[in-house]
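Entry 14. Structure prediction run on the chain below.
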Amino acid sequence: MNRTATLWVLLAVVWFGTLGVRPLYKSDESRYGEISREMVASGDWVTPRLNGFKYFEKPPLQYWTTAVLFKVLGEHDWVARLWTALIGFAGIGLVLYAGNRLFSPPAGYYAAAVLAGCPLYVLMSQVNTLDMSVSVFLSAAVIAFLLGHMLLFWVACALAVLSKGLIGIVLPGAALFIYLLVRRDWALIRRVRPVSGAIVFLLIAAPWFILVSRANPEFAHFFFIQEHFQRFTTEMHQRVHPAWYFLPVLLAGIGPWLLPFLAALRPRDDRELFLVIWALVVLAFFSASGSKLPPYILPMFPALALLIGRRLAGDARRGLLIAQSALLVVMSIAGVILVAGFAPDNYADYARWLALASALLGVAAICALVCALRSAITGAVVCLAAGGLIATVLGLAAHRTLSDRFSVASTVAKLAERPSASTPVFAVDMYDHTLPWSLKRTVTMVAHRDELEVAIGWEPQKFIRDLDAFAAVWRATPQAWAFVPAGAVDTLPAKLGIPMQVMARGSQYAIVKKP
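Output returned:
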Protein backbone atom coordinates (compact mmCIF):
# COMPACT_ATOMS: atom_id res chain seq x y z
CA MET A 1 0.00 0.00 0.00
CA ASN A 2 1.48 3.38 -1.02
CA ARG A 3 1.64 6.39 1.29
CA THR A 4 -1.41 8.11 -0.20
CA ALA A 5 -3.60 5.04 0.26
CA THR A 6 -2.29 4.62 3.82
CA LEU A 7 -3.21 8.22 4.66
CA TRP A 8 -6.74 7.70 3.29
CA VAL A 9 -7.17 4.55 5.37
CA LEU A 10 -5.95 6.31 8.52
CA LEU A 11 -8.23 9.26 7.79
CA ALA A 12 -11.21 6.93 7.39
CA VAL A 13 -10.46 5.16 10.68
CA VAL A 14 -10.39 8.46 12.58
CA TRP A 15 -13.28 9.95 10.60
CA PHE A 16 -15.74 7.09 11.12
CA GLY A 17 -14.31 5.44 14.21
CA THR A 18 -16.07 7.47 16.91
CA LEU A 19 -19.50 8.07 15.36
CA GLY A 20 -21.19 5.90 17.98
CA VAL A 21 -19.29 7.03 21.06
CA ARG A 22 -21.88 9.64 22.06
CA PRO A 23 -25.66 9.20 22.05
CA LEU A 24 -27.55 11.48 19.71
CA TYR A 25 -27.85 14.88 21.37
CA LYS A 26 -30.71 17.34 21.55
CA SER A 27 -31.96 19.05 19.59
CA ASP A 28 -30.70 18.72 15.99
CA GLU A 29 -29.08 15.30 16.14
CA SER A 30 -31.96 13.43 17.71
CA ARG A 31 -34.53 15.44 15.73
CA TYR A 32 -33.12 14.44 12.36
CA GLY A 33 -32.48 10.88 13.46
CA GLU A 34 -36.06 10.56 14.71
CA ILE A 35 -37.59 12.00 11.54
CA SER A 36 -35.75 9.38 9.50
CA ARG A 37 -36.77 6.64 11.94
CA GLU A 38 -40.43 7.65 11.70
CA MET A 39 -40.16 7.72 7.91
CA VAL A 40 -39.12 4.06 7.99
CA ALA A 41 -41.81 3.16 10.55
CA SER A 42 -44.66 4.89 8.70
CA GLY A 43 -43.61 4.09 5.15
CA ASP A 44 -44.47 7.70 4.22
CA TRP A 45 -41.46 9.12 2.37
CA VAL A 46 -43.25 12.32 1.30
CA THR A 47 -44.40 13.94 4.55
CA PRO A 48 -41.65 14.18 7.20
CA ARG A 49 -42.88 13.77 10.78
CA LEU A 50 -41.28 14.49 14.14
CA ASN A 51 -42.81 12.77 17.17
CA GLY A 52 -45.84 12.06 15.00
CA PHE A 53 -46.36 15.70 13.93
CA LYS A 54 -45.82 17.07 10.44
CA TYR A 55 -42.38 18.65 10.20
CA PHE A 56 -41.78 20.94 7.25
CA GLU A 57 -38.76 23.02 8.30
CA LYS A 58 -36.34 21.27 5.95
CA PRO A 59 -36.44 19.22 2.71
CA PRO A 60 -36.08 15.43 2.85
CA LEU A 61 -32.83 14.38 1.15
CA GLN A 62 -30.96 13.62 4.37
CA TYR A 63 -34.06 12.00 5.88
CA TRP A 64 -34.25 9.72 2.86
CA THR A 65 -30.58 8.73 2.89
CA THR A 66 -30.58 8.11 6.65
CA ALA A 67 -33.83 6.14 6.43
CA VAL A 68 -32.24 3.89 3.80
CA LEU A 69 -29.19 3.43 6.04
CA PHE A 70 -31.50 2.53 8.94
CA LYS A 71 -33.19 -0.14 6.85
CA VAL A 72 -29.81 -1.62 5.88
CA LEU A 73 -27.75 -1.18 9.05
CA GLY A 74 -30.30 -0.73 11.85
CA GLU A 75 -31.42 2.25 13.93
CA HIS A 76 -28.27 3.12 15.84
CA ASP A 77 -26.66 6.39 16.86
CA TRP A 78 -23.68 5.87 14.58
CA VAL A 79 -25.93 5.06 11.62
CA ALA A 80 -27.87 8.29 12.21
CA ARG A 81 -24.58 10.17 11.81
CA LEU A 82 -23.28 8.07 8.92
CA TRP A 83 -24.68 10.13 6.03
CA THR A 84 -23.12 13.29 7.45
CA ALA A 85 -19.77 11.54 7.87
CA LEU A 86 -19.92 9.99 4.40
CA ILE A 87 -20.77 13.23 2.61
CA GLY A 88 -18.10 15.09 4.59
CA PHE A 89 -15.53 12.45 3.65
CA ALA A 90 -16.61 12.74 0.02
CA GLY A 91 -16.13 16.50 0.26
CA ILE A 92 -12.45 15.97 1.02
CA GLY A 93 -12.09 13.78 -2.07
CA LEU A 94 -13.96 16.39 -4.11
CA VAL A 95 -11.55 19.11 -3.01
CA LEU A 96 -8.55 16.91 -3.82
CA TYR A 97 -9.87 16.27 -7.35
CA ALA A 98 -10.82 19.91 -7.93
CA GLY A 99 -7.56 21.33 -6.61
CA ASN A 100 -5.47 19.15 -8.88
CA ARG A 101 -7.67 19.88 -11.89
CA LEU A 102 -7.91 23.63 -11.31
CA PHE A 103 -4.38 24.35 -10.11
CA SER A 104 -2.39 21.12 -10.78
CA PRO A 105 -0.80 18.87 -8.12
CA PRO A 106 0.06 19.09 -5.30
CA ALA A 107 -2.53 21.85 -4.74
CA GLY A 108 -5.37 19.33 -4.56
CA TYR A 109 -3.58 17.10 -2.07
CA TYR A 110 -2.80 20.07 0.14
CA ALA A 111 -6.36 21.37 -0.15
CA ALA A 112 -7.71 17.98 0.93
CA ALA A 113 -5.36 17.97 3.92
CA VAL A 114 -6.42 21.49 4.83
CA LEU A 115 -10.11 20.58 4.77
CA ALA A 116 -9.50 17.38 6.77
CA GLY A 117 -7.80 19.48 9.45
CA CYS A 118 -10.34 22.33 9.70
CA PRO A 119 -11.96 21.99 13.14
CA LEU A 120 -15.40 23.25 12.06
CA TYR A 121 -15.51 20.95 9.03
CA VAL A 122 -14.39 17.95 11.08
CA LEU A 123 -16.82 18.77 13.86
CA MET A 124 -19.82 19.03 11.55
CA SER A 125 -18.91 15.75 9.84
CA GLN A 126 -19.42 14.03 13.20
CA VAL A 127 -22.73 15.66 14.12
CA ASN A 128 -26.11 14.71 12.67
CA THR A 129 -27.24 18.00 11.13
CA LEU A 130 -28.05 19.09 7.58
CA ASP A 131 -25.16 21.55 7.29
CA MET A 132 -22.56 19.15 5.94
CA SER A 133 -24.67 17.80 3.08
CA VAL A 134 -25.76 21.24 1.86
CA SER A 135 -22.17 22.49 2.15
CA VAL A 136 -20.73 19.66 0.05
CA PHE A 137 -23.42 19.95 -2.62
CA LEU A 138 -22.97 23.72 -2.79
CA SER A 139 -19.22 23.20 -3.08
CA ALA A 140 -19.81 20.66 -5.82
CA ALA A 141 -21.83 23.32 -7.66
CA VAL A 142 -19.01 25.86 -7.32
CA ILE A 143 -16.42 23.34 -8.51
CA ALA A 144 -18.59 22.19 -11.42
CA PHE A 145 -18.92 25.80 -12.55
CA LEU A 146 -15.17 26.39 -12.38
CA LEU A 147 -14.48 23.20 -14.34
CA GLY A 148 -17.09 24.09 -16.97
CA HIS A 149 -19.52 21.25 -16.16
CA MET A 150 -22.64 23.40 -16.22
CA LEU A 151 -25.29 20.68 -16.07
CA LEU A 152 -23.50 19.19 -13.07
CA PHE A 153 -23.65 22.67 -11.54
CA TRP A 154 -27.44 22.59 -11.80
CA VAL A 155 -27.62 19.01 -10.48
CA ALA A 156 -25.57 19.97 -7.44
CA CYS A 157 -27.75 23.04 -6.82
CA ALA A 158 -30.87 20.85 -6.94
CA LEU A 159 -29.38 18.41 -4.42
CA ALA A 160 -28.42 21.35 -2.20
CA VAL A 161 -32.02 22.60 -2.32
CA LEU A 162 -33.27 19.14 -1.37
CA SER A 163 -30.77 19.15 1.48
CA LYS A 164 -31.62 22.43 3.18
CA GLY A 165 -33.86 24.64 1.09
CA LEU A 166 -33.63 27.62 -1.22
CA ILE A 167 -30.10 28.60 -0.21
CA GLY A 168 -29.11 25.77 -2.53
CA ILE A 169 -29.89 28.00 -5.52
CA VAL A 170 -29.92 31.50 -3.99
CA LEU A 171 -26.27 31.45 -2.84
CA PRO A 172 -24.78 30.08 -6.10
CA GLY A 173 -26.97 32.47 -8.06
CA ALA A 174 -25.76 35.44 -6.02
CA ALA A 175 -22.12 34.41 -6.44
CA LEU A 176 -22.53 34.03 -10.20
CA PHE A 177 -24.25 37.41 -10.44
CA ILE A 178 -21.48 39.20 -8.54
CA TYR A 179 -18.80 37.39 -10.53
CA LEU A 180 -20.57 38.45 -13.73
CA LEU A 181 -20.58 42.09 -12.63
CA VAL A 182 -16.93 42.03 -11.59
CA ARG A 183 -15.68 40.28 -14.72
CA ARG A 184 -18.16 41.91 -17.14
CA ASP A 185 -18.14 38.62 -19.00
CA TRP A 186 -21.67 38.68 -20.42
CA ALA A 187 -21.09 35.46 -22.38
CA LEU A 188 -21.16 33.71 -19.01
CA ILE A 189 -24.96 33.90 -19.11
CA ARG A 190 -25.01 31.66 -22.16
CA ARG A 191 -22.26 29.34 -20.91
CA VAL A 192 -24.09 28.54 -17.70
CA ARG A 193 -26.92 27.00 -19.82
CA PRO A 194 -29.83 28.71 -18.05
CA VAL A 195 -32.62 26.95 -19.99
CA SER A 196 -31.44 23.35 -20.13
CA GLY A 197 -29.86 23.73 -16.69
CA ALA A 198 -33.06 25.04 -15.14
CA ILE A 199 -34.96 22.10 -16.62
CA VAL A 200 -32.50 19.65 -15.07
CA PHE A 201 -32.71 21.53 -11.77
CA LEU A 202 -36.53 21.38 -11.70
CA LEU A 203 -36.64 17.72 -12.72
CA ILE A 204 -34.58 16.86 -9.65
CA ALA A 205 -35.79 19.38 -7.08
CA ALA A 206 -39.43 20.01 -7.93
CA PRO A 207 -41.16 16.58 -7.63
CA TRP A 208 -40.97 16.36 -3.84
CA PHE A 209 -42.19 19.93 -3.40
CA ILE A 210 -45.16 19.16 -5.66
CA LEU A 211 -46.00 15.89 -3.90
CA VAL A 212 -45.70 17.27 -0.36
CA SER A 213 -47.76 20.35 -1.27
CA ARG A 214 -50.53 18.19 -2.72
CA ALA A 215 -50.58 16.02 0.40
CA ASN A 216 -50.31 18.94 2.85
CA PRO A 217 -51.97 22.27 1.92
CA GLU A 218 -50.24 24.00 4.85
CA PHE A 219 -46.75 23.17 3.58
CA ALA A 220 -46.10 25.98 1.10
CA HIS A 221 -46.77 28.90 3.45
CA PHE A 222 -44.84 27.34 6.33
CA PHE A 223 -41.80 26.30 4.26
CA PHE A 224 -41.39 29.23 1.88
CA ILE A 225 -42.73 32.14 3.95
CA GLN A 226 -42.01 31.24 7.58
CA GLU A 227 -38.92 29.07 7.27
CA HIS A 228 -37.21 31.12 4.58
CA PHE A 229 -38.40 34.73 4.33
CA GLN A 230 -39.36 35.28 7.99
CA ARG A 231 -36.46 33.22 9.30
CA PHE A 232 -34.00 35.42 7.39
CA THR A 233 -35.63 38.81 8.02
CA THR A 234 -36.82 38.42 11.63
CA GLU A 235 -35.58 37.14 14.98
CA MET A 236 -38.36 34.53 15.28
CA HIS A 237 -35.97 31.69 16.22
CA GLN A 238 -34.15 33.70 18.89
CA ARG A 239 -30.74 33.12 17.32
CA VAL A 240 -29.82 36.77 17.45
CA HIS A 241 -26.15 37.73 17.21
CA PRO A 242 -24.22 40.79 16.01
CA ALA A 243 -23.20 41.14 12.36
CA TRP A 244 -19.58 40.20 13.18
CA TYR A 245 -20.68 36.94 14.88
CA PHE A 246 -19.24 34.67 12.18
CA LEU A 247 -15.78 36.21 12.11
CA PRO A 248 -14.52 34.47 15.29
CA VAL A 249 -16.37 31.33 14.18
CA LEU A 250 -14.48 31.46 10.90
CA LEU A 251 -11.09 32.02 12.52
CA ALA A 252 -11.61 29.23 15.06
CA GLY A 253 -13.09 26.96 12.42
CA ILE A 254 -10.10 27.35 10.11
CA GLY A 255 -7.85 26.48 13.08
CA PRO A 256 -4.40 25.23 12.05
CA TRP A 257 -4.49 27.19 8.78
CA LEU A 258 -5.04 30.72 10.06
CA LEU A 259 -1.98 32.36 8.49
CA PRO A 260 -2.23 30.51 5.14
CA PHE A 261 -5.93 31.49 5.10
CA LEU A 262 -5.11 35.18 5.51
CA ALA A 263 -2.46 34.89 2.80
CA ALA A 264 -4.92 33.27 0.40
CA LEU A 265 -7.58 35.99 0.49
CA ARG A 266 -6.08 38.02 -2.39
CA PRO A 267 -7.12 36.35 -5.68
CA ARG A 268 -4.51 36.00 -8.41
CA ASP A 269 -6.70 34.78 -11.28
CA ASP A 270 -10.34 34.28 -12.24
CA ARG A 271 -10.61 30.88 -10.55
CA GLU A 272 -9.42 32.25 -7.24
CA LEU A 273 -11.60 35.32 -7.74
CA PHE A 274 -14.73 33.18 -7.98
CA LEU A 275 -13.76 31.16 -4.92
CA VAL A 276 -13.22 34.35 -2.92
CA ILE A 277 -16.53 35.79 -4.15
CA TRP A 278 -18.27 32.56 -3.17
CA ALA A 279 -16.81 32.63 0.34
CA LEU A 280 -17.73 36.29 0.80
CA VAL A 281 -21.30 35.71 -0.44
CA VAL A 282 -21.79 32.93 2.12
CA LEU A 283 -20.33 35.05 4.91
CA ALA A 284 -22.31 38.17 3.99
CA PHE A 285 -25.60 36.32 3.50
CA PHE A 286 -25.63 34.65 6.88
CA SER A 287 -24.18 37.69 8.64
CA ALA A 288 -27.19 39.66 7.39
CA SER A 289 -29.64 36.99 8.54
CA GLY A 290 -31.71 37.36 11.70
CA SER A 291 -30.89 33.73 12.54
CA LYS A 292 -27.26 32.76 13.15
CA LEU A 293 -25.64 29.49 14.21
CA PRO A 294 -21.94 28.55 13.81
CA PRO A 295 -22.41 25.81 11.14
CA TYR A 296 -24.18 28.16 8.74
CA ILE A 297 -20.89 29.33 7.19
CA LEU A 298 -19.64 25.78 6.58
CA PRO A 299 -20.18 26.09 2.76
CA MET A 300 -17.19 28.49 2.74
CA PHE A 301 -14.70 25.90 3.90
CA PRO A 302 -14.13 23.71 0.83
CA ALA A 303 -13.55 26.85 -1.26
CA LEU A 304 -11.18 28.24 1.36
CA ALA A 305 -9.35 24.89 1.45
CA LEU A 306 -8.79 25.15 -2.31
CA LEU A 307 -7.38 28.65 -1.94
CA ILE A 308 -5.14 27.64 0.96
CA GLY A 309 -4.03 24.47 -0.82
CA ARG A 310 -2.86 26.48 -3.80
CA ARG A 311 -0.93 28.88 -1.54
CA LEU A 312 0.75 25.96 0.18
CA ALA A 313 1.77 24.63 -3.23
CA GLY A 314 3.40 27.97 -4.09
CA ASP A 315 6.89 29.34 -3.63
CA ALA A 316 6.41 31.19 -0.32
CA ARG A 317 5.01 28.20 1.56
CA ARG A 318 8.02 27.36 3.78
CA GLY A 319 7.99 30.62 5.74
CA LEU A 320 4.22 30.51 5.98
CA LEU A 321 4.26 27.02 7.44
CA ILE A 322 7.04 27.86 9.90
CA ALA A 323 5.08 30.83 11.20
CA GLN A 324 1.81 28.90 11.35
CA SER A 325 3.35 25.93 13.16
CA ALA A 326 5.05 28.18 15.73
CA LEU A 327 1.78 30.06 16.29
CA LEU A 328 -0.08 26.79 16.79
CA VAL A 329 2.46 25.60 19.36
CA VAL A 330 1.85 28.76 21.39
CA MET A 331 -1.93 28.46 21.00
CA SER A 332 -1.93 24.81 22.11
CA ILE A 333 0.11 25.63 25.25
CA ALA A 334 -2.31 28.46 26.02
CA GLY A 335 -5.20 26.05 25.46
CA VAL A 336 -3.84 23.52 27.93
CA ILE A 337 -3.30 26.21 30.57
CA LEU A 338 -6.70 27.76 30.01
CA VAL A 339 -8.64 24.49 30.11
CA ALA A 340 -6.72 22.99 33.03
CA GLY A 341 -6.76 26.14 35.13
CA PHE A 342 -10.19 27.66 34.59
CA ALA A 343 -12.63 24.83 33.82
CA PRO A 344 -15.58 24.64 36.28
CA ASP A 345 -15.61 21.69 38.67
CA ASN A 346 -18.62 20.11 36.98
CA TYR A 347 -16.64 20.02 33.72
CA ALA A 348 -13.46 18.59 35.26
CA ASP A 349 -13.56 15.24 33.45
CA TYR A 350 -14.21 16.85 30.09
CA ALA A 351 -11.57 19.50 30.74
CA ARG A 352 -8.92 16.81 31.14
CA TRP A 353 -9.79 15.43 27.72
CA LEU A 354 -9.75 18.90 26.17
CA ALA A 355 -6.33 19.52 27.71
CA LEU A 356 -5.11 16.27 26.16
CA ALA A 357 -6.57 17.27 22.77
CA SER A 358 -4.83 20.64 22.98
CA ALA A 359 -1.56 18.95 23.95
CA LEU A 360 -1.78 16.56 20.99
CA LEU A 361 -2.40 19.53 18.72
CA GLY A 362 0.77 21.10 20.13
CA VAL A 363 2.78 17.93 19.47
CA ALA A 364 1.53 17.89 15.88
CA ALA A 365 2.45 21.56 15.51
CA ILE A 366 5.99 20.88 16.78
CA CYS A 367 6.33 18.06 14.24
CA ALA A 368 5.06 20.40 11.52
CA LEU A 369 7.56 23.05 12.59
CA VAL A 370 10.45 20.60 12.37
CA CYS A 371 9.28 19.49 8.91
CA ALA A 372 8.90 23.07 7.71
CA LEU A 373 12.36 24.03 8.97
CA ARG A 374 13.74 21.10 6.96
CA SER A 375 11.71 22.18 3.90
CA ALA A 376 9.61 18.99 4.12
CA ILE A 377 6.49 20.82 3.01
CA THR A 378 4.22 17.81 2.59
CA GLY A 379 5.20 16.50 6.02
CA ALA A 380 4.39 19.86 7.62
CA VAL A 381 0.99 20.01 5.92
CA VAL A 382 0.15 16.45 6.96
CA CYS A 383 1.19 17.11 10.57
CA LEU A 384 -0.95 20.24 10.83
CA ALA A 385 -3.92 18.42 9.27
CA ALA A 386 -3.49 15.43 11.59
CA GLY A 387 -3.31 17.72 14.61
CA GLY A 388 -6.51 19.56 13.72
CA LEU A 389 -8.33 16.33 12.88
CA ILE A 390 -7.32 14.29 15.92
CA ALA A 391 -7.75 17.13 18.41
CA THR A 392 -11.26 17.88 17.13
CA VAL A 393 -12.41 14.26 17.02
CA LEU A 394 -10.98 13.58 20.49
CA GLY A 395 -12.59 16.68 21.96
CA LEU A 396 -15.95 15.75 20.50
CA ALA A 397 -15.78 12.07 21.48
CA ALA A 398 -14.79 13.02 25.04
CA HIS A 399 -17.97 15.06 25.29
CA ARG A 400 -19.57 11.75 26.20
CA THR A 401 -18.58 12.63 29.79
CA LEU A 402 -21.36 15.27 29.62
CA SER A 403 -23.86 13.25 27.61
CA ASP A 404 -26.44 12.92 30.40
CA ARG A 405 -26.97 16.69 30.09
CA PHE A 406 -27.79 16.46 26.40
CA SER A 407 -29.63 13.14 26.09
CA VAL A 408 -32.06 10.97 28.07
CA ALA A 409 -30.30 7.84 26.77
CA SER A 410 -28.49 7.18 30.06
CA THR A 411 -31.73 7.53 32.03
CA VAL A 412 -33.58 5.19 29.67
CA ALA A 413 -30.72 2.70 30.00
CA LYS A 414 -31.44 2.43 33.73
CA LEU A 415 -34.90 0.94 33.13
CA ALA A 416 -35.29 -2.67 34.13
CA GLU A 417 -38.35 -2.85 31.89
CA ARG A 418 -39.63 -0.79 28.97
CA PRO A 419 -43.14 0.35 28.06
CA SER A 420 -44.77 -1.86 25.45
CA ALA A 421 -45.53 -0.52 22.00
CA SER A 422 -49.23 -0.17 22.89
CA THR A 423 -48.65 1.62 26.22
CA PRO A 424 -48.88 5.42 26.02
CA VAL A 425 -45.83 7.43 27.09
CA PHE A 426 -46.18 11.09 28.07
CA ALA A 427 -43.70 13.97 28.16
CA VAL A 428 -45.12 16.00 31.04
CA ASP A 429 -44.56 19.75 31.06
CA MET A 430 -41.36 19.25 29.04
CA TYR A 431 -40.18 17.87 25.73
CA ASP A 432 -36.72 16.59 24.95
CA HIS A 433 -35.93 15.64 21.34
CA THR A 434 -33.94 12.64 22.53
CA LEU A 435 -37.06 11.06 24.07
CA PRO A 436 -38.63 9.47 20.98
CA TRP A 437 -35.24 8.55 19.53
CA SER A 438 -34.09 6.83 22.74
CA LEU A 439 -37.38 4.94 23.07
CA LYS A 440 -37.71 4.31 19.32
CA ARG A 441 -41.33 5.47 19.51
CA THR A 442 -43.34 8.68 19.68
CA VAL A 443 -44.51 10.22 22.96
CA THR A 444 -47.56 12.34 23.83
CA MET A 445 -46.60 15.90 24.68
CA VAL A 446 -48.27 17.52 27.69
CA ALA A 447 -48.52 21.32 28.25
CA HIS A 448 -45.14 22.10 26.66
CA ARG A 449 -45.07 22.65 22.88
CA ASP A 450 -41.36 23.23 22.27
CA GLU A 451 -40.69 23.99 18.56
CA LEU A 452 -43.80 22.11 17.43
CA GLU A 453 -46.32 24.82 18.23
CA VAL A 454 -47.37 25.38 14.61
CA ALA A 455 -47.48 21.63 13.90
CA ILE A 456 -49.59 21.05 17.01
CA GLY A 457 -52.03 23.61 15.62
CA TRP A 458 -52.42 21.40 12.55
CA GLU A 459 -53.03 18.23 14.61
CA PRO A 460 -54.18 19.38 18.09
CA GLN A 461 -55.74 16.01 18.93
CA LYS A 462 -52.24 14.58 19.42
CA PHE A 463 -51.42 17.09 22.18
CA ILE A 464 -52.62 17.42 25.81
CA ARG A 465 -53.06 21.09 26.59
CA ASP A 466 -52.47 21.19 30.39
CA LEU A 467 -51.66 19.13 33.49
CA ASP A 468 -55.29 18.74 34.59
CA ALA A 469 -56.19 17.20 31.23
CA PHE A 470 -53.15 14.93 31.54
CA ALA A 471 -54.23 13.79 35.02
CA ALA A 472 -57.64 12.83 33.65
CA VAL A 473 -56.06 10.79 30.85
CA TRP A 474 -53.65 9.14 33.31
CA ARG A 475 -56.50 8.02 35.55
CA ALA A 476 -58.49 6.63 32.62
CA THR A 477 -55.58 4.72 31.07
CA PRO A 478 -54.95 1.15 32.35
CA GLN A 479 -51.19 1.38 31.75
CA ALA A 480 -49.07 4.48 31.19
CA TRP A 481 -45.53 5.82 31.45
CA ALA A 482 -44.25 9.38 31.62
CA PHE A 483 -41.13 11.52 31.62
CA VAL A 484 -41.28 14.36 34.13
CA PRO A 485 -38.76 17.01 35.20
CA ALA A 486 -36.45 15.58 37.87
CA GLY A 487 -37.24 18.43 40.22
CA ALA A 488 -40.99 17.83 40.03
CA VAL A 489 -41.24 14.05 40.28
CA ASP A 490 -41.65 13.99 44.07
CA THR A 491 -44.37 16.66 44.18
CA LEU A 492 -46.28 16.12 40.93
CA PRO A 493 -48.30 13.03 42.02
CA ALA A 494 -49.72 14.83 45.05
CA LYS A 495 -50.31 18.01 43.07
CA LEU A 496 -52.34 16.18 40.42
CA GLY A 497 -53.81 13.52 42.70
CA ILE A 498 -52.51 10.61 40.62
CA PRO A 499 -50.24 7.67 41.48
CA MET A 500 -46.77 7.47 39.93
CA GLN A 501 -44.05 4.90 40.45
CA VAL A 502 -40.51 6.10 39.80
CA MET A 503 -38.69 3.69 37.49
CA ALA A 504 -35.49 5.67 36.83
CA ARG A 505 -33.97 9.01 37.74
CA GLY A 506 -31.55 11.09 35.70
CA SER A 507 -29.92 14.49 36.05
CA GLN A 508 -32.75 16.19 34.16
CA TYR A 509 -35.74 13.84 34.06
CA ALA A 510 -37.35 11.00 35.93
CA ILE A 511 -39.23 8.14 34.29
CA VAL A 512 -42.44 7.04 36.01
CA LYS A 513 -45.23 4.61 35.32
CA LYS A 514 -48.76 4.05 36.56
CA PRO A 515 -48.54 1.42 39.34
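DSSP finds 25 helices and seven strands in the chain.
Filed with the rest of this week's runs.
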